[in-house]
Write a structure and sequence with these properties.
With 376 residues, the chain is α+β, with helices and mostly antiparallel strands. The protein is 49% helix and 16% strand.
Length: 376
């Protein structure tokens, strides 16, 4: 059923209360205006660790809570409502990726991820658009492992990373998704060169260059040459998390716009009494309710079988991009001339929505993926 359990509702309420105090939109403004070069507040990250969110997909043996994918989506939704800047999506993706690692590597990294002491980030794309099976970063076999050479682009939270989960081409095949392997590369490894690119949402993406980076056999995550299924599962966790964040953005923007229409008066009457505006808000409300349902359905399906939830996860991401874009566009228009001023938060929601829409596949990527899976 498309409803939250009692525990999930409690988590949602706790997350809303925590973020409302510790990480409101005003906190993003302070972080932006401080110009520290960091995408997140380290003290906030420690407080989030106290909440246990980084370990929400990690088992208790490795210091996590294993609360589940629905819980992760609930938290990401509330973070979207507050525009909270923190590398939580990276932690969720790394949690799933490191399940495929050798026990010694998992034991080393998973507890550190769960407690917020380490950040691992996925380095997948190499061009301007998300294309996880178009990997050209090369590997050369050595007596102890491999040497990596190539580039990665547009990596969220890469500037804060202690390590990267890198998708590399380890063999050639007619099928582009074959011959891909995953490796864990520490950020301080010799030959890793990073470049920070500031984005419109006051955060950043990172471009990486690998010049003769050596990795050992123990740094291989999952099977050699057959790493794409694991990579796809990791990306789906990120896609669902971003869809939930976009859902939160749409919900918050709708609430703020509705409140404004009720308060703002023209010719002695509130704007909310205008039937044409009522129609626009009703349409947006309906779209948001559909989005909330598909995100929850995808998260519930992912808890049962992550690989079997691909269809719903792509549906959730595509719908989230569309609805969040509609929500922020309507908000700007219905607020009138003040809609895009920096003094009003609506513009900040729009900027984040536009950047998040591109992460791990935009609307068109997921519509095409959905169609392929349905045999069109």
């Amino acid at each position: 059923m498309l409803v939250l359990t009692e525990d999930q509702n409690l988590l949602k309420s706790a997350a809303a209360a925590f973020l409302g105090v510790e990480a409101p939109v005003a906190a993003l403004r302070r972080l932006r205006d401080a110009s520290t070069g960091l995408d997140y507040d380290k003290s906030l990250w420690c407080k989030i660790a106290d909440q246990g969110w980084q370990g929400i997909l990690i088992d208790e043996i490795h210091d996590g809570s294993n609360f589940g994918l629905v819980g992760a989506a609930v938290v990401c939704e509330e973070m979207g409502r507050c525009l909270t800047a923190a590398p939580l999506v990276a932690a969720l993706m790394a949690s799933v990726a490191m399940r495929q690692a050798v026990p010694t590597l998992a034991k080393l990294w998973l507890p550190r991820i769960a407690t917020g002491k380490a950040i691992l980030v996925c380095a997948v794309d190499e061009g301007r658009k998300h294309a996880p099976d178009h990997i050209t970063l090369s590997t050369t076999r050595t007596t102890t492992g491999w040497v990596l050479n190539g580039i990665k682009s547009a990596i969220p939270d890469g500037d804060s990373a202690d390590g990267f989960i890198v998708a590399a081409r380890s063999s050639n095949s007619d099928n582009p998704s074959d011959g891909i392997s995953l490796f864990l590369v520490e950020a301080q490894a010799a030959g890793v060169i990073t470049r920070r690119v500031t984005t419109a949402d006051s955060r950043s993406l990172t471009a990486l260059q690998f010049e003769g980076v050596e990795v050992t056999r123990e740094q291989l995550i999952g099977p050699l040459n057959r790493g794409f299924p694991a990579l796809d599962a990791v990306l789906d966790v990120g896609r669902l998390a971003i869809a939930a964040e976009l859902s939160g953005i749409a919900q918050e923007v709708f609430a703020r716009t509705l409140d404004y229409l009720k308060q703002r008066k023209q010719f002695g009457r509130p704007l909310s009494s205008n039937q044409a505006l009522q129609h626009r808000m009703s349409h947006l409300y309906s779209e948001i309710e559909v989005l909330k349902s598909v995100v929850l359905a995808a998260a519930q399906a992912g808890e049962v079988n992550l690989h079997g939830a691909k269809l719903l996860i792509s549906a959730a991401k595509a719908k989230a991009v569309y609805v969040s874009r509609l929500a922020v566009s309507e908000a700007v228009q219905l607020h009138g001339g003040i809609g895009m001023t920096d003094e009003l938060d609506i513009g900040l929601f729009m900027k984040r929505a536009r950047v998040a829409a591109e992460l791990w596949g935009d609307e068109y990527f997921h519509l095409n993926r959905f169609a392929d899976m349905e045999g069109f």
